[in-house]
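Please, structure for the following, as tokens.
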Amino acid sequence: MDLSNNRLCCGGCFKKTAYDVKFQGKWLRLKKTVDPELILWENFAVTRKSKCARKILFGFAMLLLLAACFYSVFLFERAIYDEE
């Protein structure tokens, strides 16, 4: 399904903004860029695969930590109940 002509389907009734530009016969939507000093250039070379692996590892570590906290609370409650 080709969506490249979706701007022409309404007969041009929508006004083009200053950020809509035609380049080599196709409409481009431009966005304002971030200032270069705000970019973390150290993270620029990190691949998408590496980012995904880090997120999965972090999520797994947080689930493990959460389970350990629940288990410790369960053990403390059980110890208090056994003392009574």
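The radius of gyration is 27 Å. Residues 1-8 have pLDDT under 50 and may be disordered.
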